[in-house]
Design goal:
The protein is an alpha+beta fold. The protein has three domains: 4-152, Glutaredoxin (3-Layer(aba) Sandwich), CATH 3.40.30; 167-262, no CATH class; 271-375, no CATH class. Helices cover 25% and strands 29% of the residues. The chain contains eleven helices and 17 strands. A six-stranded mixed β-sheet has the order 1-4-3-2-5-6, with no helix packed on it. The chain has a four-stranded antiparallel β-sheet with strand order 7-11-9-8. A four-stranded mixed β-sheet has the order 10-17-12-15. The longest helix is centred in the first third of the chain and has 12 residues, at 4-15. It starts with a helix and ends with a strand. Residues 1-17 and 162-171 have low confidence and may be disordered.
Length: 381
């Protein structure tokens, strides 16, 4: 498989819940040593502390670091100390720091003494501790924004530089076209190809360790086999979403900015290919797994557990995308089926996946030639 299991495990790790410590005395912070700067103990007395638990190969951890860096810069002149604690060895962290900048003091807790004391079960997990040593907030780091931190500190006014931080700081290419928005792009040379992550909030989109092909396919919500690119570099990407953009505009604008930053152009070419048509042979089987009302679906749930893909409240397009990505093929939807579905089937073997889809849901994949639009990405001339 193409890393689905590992990606799922990363998502599970990021969503696990630590013990609730808010309004309780924070455990003591003990580390083997401090880094960044090297071996200098950070000032924590009479300080507010933003404490993040992370590690270098955790994709959700890595793509929240720019947000935490922004917070550290925003509150640089305030009585706030930013700490980041990992269970890793110095060699791993130093390799990471050659590729990625961190504003926080980094503590090595290889014995898990502080990690266990705070009850950390998932990464990343962030705590805000007041000068009296009481935990005032804990949660996912992207949920800790500047107004919230200022409010926790009892400040009636945000620091002067809040809101002045721009995603253009990492640009290699000047943005001159008003329709192109700033985007940060850097090569990921510190993670293997399996660990990766993609996340989008109302304010920003962050990607860790994706190829250009993977990013474009994700943004355009289609299978990677429909995107043609020879660029195998893995990228870290951050895009601050302008308020004026409507939700439907965001993916296309991110894609446009990314191609501009990397000096690529994208063209649509129509080709006849050998693929598969997804047809519905027995609608009663699929109807038994349909969600009765779209109003009952809060959001899509997609995950891989023990080699099986599990989708809750998904559309036929979601099924097609996962099949295309996993088995490197192109599939045409010939079902004309609109209800949302709950599906589970194996990803370990294509023939077995075919058998399960037919037996459980009445869905069949039929070899077929058909025309399809492909996106071809090339360097600008």
């Amino acid at each position: 498989m193409k890393g689905f299991v590992s990606l799922f495990l990363l998502l599970v790790v990021s969503q696990a819940v630590a013990q609730e410590l808010v309004n309780q005395k924070a455990p003591d912070i003990h580390v083997d040593r401090w880094m960044n700067p090297e071996d200098r103990t950070p000032q924590t007395a009479e300080q507010w502390i933003v404490l993040d638990f992370w590690f270098t190969t955790c994709a959700p951890c890595v793509f929240t670091l720019p947000h935490l860096n922004d917070l550290a810069k925003t509150f640089k002149r305030q009585d706030v100390t930013f700490l980041a604690i990992t269970f890793e060895q110095a060699k791993q962290v130093n390799k990471f720091l050659k590729a990625r900048k961190m504003e926080a003091h980094i503590g090595l807790d290889t014995a898990y003494q502080t990690i266990k004391a705070f009850g950390v079960q998932g990464y990343p997990e962030t705590f805000v501790i007041d000068p009296e040593g009481i935990v005032r907030w804990q949660g996912y780091p992207l949920d800790l924004n500047a107004p919230l931190l200022a409010d926790l500190m009892g400040s009636t006014q945000l620091p002067e530089n809040v809101g002045n931080l721009s995603s253009s700081s990492g640009l290699k290419k000047e943005v001159t076209d008003e329709t192109i928005y700033p985007i940060e792009v850097s090569q990921n040379s510190y993670m293997g190809p399996v660990a990766k992550g993609y996340q989008q909030t109302k304010k920003e989109m962050t990607v860790t360790n994706y190829t250009l092909k993977e990013v474009m396919a994700t943004l355009l919500d289609q299978g990677e086999s429909r995107v043609l690119s020879s660029d195998t570099t893995r990228y870290d990407i951050r895009f601050m979403i302008p308020r004026k953009l409507k939700k439907k505009q965001i993916p296309a604008e991110i894609a446009k900015s990314l191609l501009h930053e990397l000096d690529y152009t994208a063209k649509i070419k129509r080709e006849i290919i050998d693929g598969f048509a997804l047809s519905l042979e027995n609608d009663s089987l699929l109807n038994a797994n349909a969600v009765q009302s779209r109003l009952l679906v809060v959001g899509k749930g997609k995950a891989v557990r023990y080699g099986n893909w599990e989708g809750e409240g998904v559309e036929m397009k979601d099924l097609i995308v996962v099949l295309e990505n996993e088995f490197d093929m192109i599939i045409r939807d010939a079902t004309d089926y609109n209800p949302l579905m709950n599906l589970t089937f194996t990803l370990s073997d294509f023939e077995q996946a075919q058998e399960e889809l037919k037996a459980k849901y009445g869905l069949v994949l039929i070899p077929q030639q058909f025309e399809v639009d492909l996106m071809k990405i090339e360097k600008q001339e």
